[in-house]
Design a protein that fits this description.
By secondary structure, the chain is an alpha/beta fold. It has nine helices and ten strands. The strands form three sheets. The protein has a five-stranded parallel sheet with strand order 5-4-3-10-9. Strands 6-7-8 form a three-stranded parallel sheet, with helices on one face. The chain is globular.
């Protein structure tokens, strides 16, 4: 149940995930909003085409007598990315995504996250690796939340994950990117998209992630818990676009204690001539 396929040649600077091209490099979560209407308005303002859904916490049809998120965000318009938020073991994560595949008529693009503890929500890497191996073997296209360890990121790519999603800082913390050097190591060696996931607090965090060379940014709390979620979603859209353009443009080199005037120094009027 993906949104209609968009041809890459019709998109300037497309984001490729699992062989599909997307215009937006902002992925957005659907939790923590006050209601589905606010969720819809924020997602639309963000310009995101891929929206994540916590299968354990959001109704997408498993509860027939409750409102469904899919009524607000129809799969005809958005790529639904079911995730395993709230899972603390490989077995729970795999079971949850098998259920999502059934609910979404064979949908195979998923976000895997296996948490280590409920306090920090830091990823349990051992369980994540185990779940990734099982899911890839069963034909899922796995986007995987992980730590910012470059060795682990490479291992997940080798397993067959279609995108690596290292944290910037802890989920919901809003602390921004705490270790840009590790992110750059991951970006430098990855042959699949690198998507910063978790820790973004405001628009400048998203811009920095994109300036570092990340392919995309995923966020939820930064938008949903803003005082004005819809306005923050608009800001994040602009930040991701600006950060991407800055990365493609190539920033000037940093030079300590080496001033360089913006205006040409030649042709100035001599003080003696005045």
């Amino acid at each position: 149940m993906n949104a209609p396929t968009r041809l890459a040649e019709q998109i300037a600077d497309p984001l490729f995930i699992a062989g599909r091209a997307y215009r937006s490099r902002l992925l957005i979560g659907t939790g923590k909003y006050k209601d589905f209407d606010e969720t819809r308005r924020a997602v639309e303002a963000s310009g995101a085409e891929i929206v994540t859904v916590a299968i354990r916490r959001t109704n997408i049809g498993q509860n027939a007598n409750e409102p469904s998120l899919l009524d607000a965000l129809p799969p005809s318009r958005f790529t639904i990315l079911p995730n395993t938020a709230g899972c603390y073991s490989s077995e729970d994560a795999v079971r949850t995504l098998r259920l999502a595949r059934e609910l979404l008529d064979g949908h195979d693009l998923v976000k895997l996250e296996v948490l280590g503890d409920p306090n920090t929500l830091y990823p349990n890497i051992v369980e994540t690796l185990s779940a990734a191996e099982t899911l890839v073997r069963e034909g899922f296209k796995v986007m995987v939340y992980t730590s910012d360890d470059p060795i682990v990121a490479k291992r997940l790519e080798d397993i067959g994950c279609v995108a690596i999603m290292p944290l910037a800082s802890l989920i919901g913390s809003g602390m921004g990117i705490l270790n840009p050097w590790n992110l750059e190591l991951i970006i430098g060696s990855a042959k699949v998209p690198v998507v910063v996931d978790a820790g973004v607090g405001t628009a400048s965090d998203a811009a920095i992630a994109m300036e570092l060379g990340c392919d995309a940014v995923l966020m939820n709390t930064a938008v949903a818990k803003a005082q004005n979620p819809v306005l923050m979603a608009q800001a994040m859209k602009k930040a991701v676009e600006a950060g991407r353009e800055a990365f493609l443009a190539g920033r000037m080199p940093k030079k300590l204690y080496s001033a360089s005037p913006s205006s040409p120094a030649s042709g100035l009027i001599s003080p003696k001539a005045a």
